[in-house]
Amino acid sequence: MKTYNINPVISLQITADISLAGGLNILYLGTTLQKKLNFSLFGLPDSNQKFKGDVMGFGCNFGVLVDLTKDLSIGTSYRNRIKVDIDGSLTNNLQSPLLSGSFPNKNGKVELTLPAQFHFGVFYKGLDPFTFEIAMRWEDWSSYKELKLYMEQSVVGYNKLITPKNWKYTYSFNIGVKYKINETIAFLAGYLYSGNPVPDSTFEPSIPDANTHLLTAGILVKKKDFNFDISYAYQKLQNRKKNNAIDDNPFDGFNANYSANGTYKSDIHMIGLSLTYKF
Fold it and tell me: Is there a domain that residue 255 lies in?
């Protein structure tokens, strides 16, 4: 899933110590869902099925920043849920021509609700040349109860595929520090711990999420009105075991229960670059 979010924001200085902000989220979302169709029951090779679609969605966000002292600030922000109906096409790359009549290509729709988010952070700069930030984030992934794919034409008697998800809300906590070498260069480092929203009962390989630890390091370079940042992050996900009967459609008889059960191990390396111009 790829998303592009345009977020125009208006901020207002209420007092010398309090600022408010609000904005509109204009979301473009494109998604591709792919799976294997298991026809071993009929002595036929597996086939590929793919749904591809896109949609525009809209939401809002707002926040508040309070300077408690000249060195200590707190801030909160909230982003609401965005519900979208993704229209697209469902294609079947069948390995046997005997199946073409039962599995035609067709249009379809996927329902998806992106979660609400709440952030809270504390910023402290009273130990020059160090500055510190601690923060937490809450994400309401309980909005993702099931993945629904509706088809305009039925396949082997079914016009919808519903995969249970039953995800739950999650929390993450992070701490960051910046060490200012001079007016031009600063070093940054941080750590984040995040819970995962996927319960054991619906854990499956398409999104092998797990509780995660994230370590980051970076450098900030200022030159007149330009800021240049480069950063590296290493994310280690705790091992997860799948031991359930998740199947996108347990009534079709084509996908065996308990498929893909096993242990999942993941880690991620990330590099970030940013260029900021202030005017």
Answer: yes
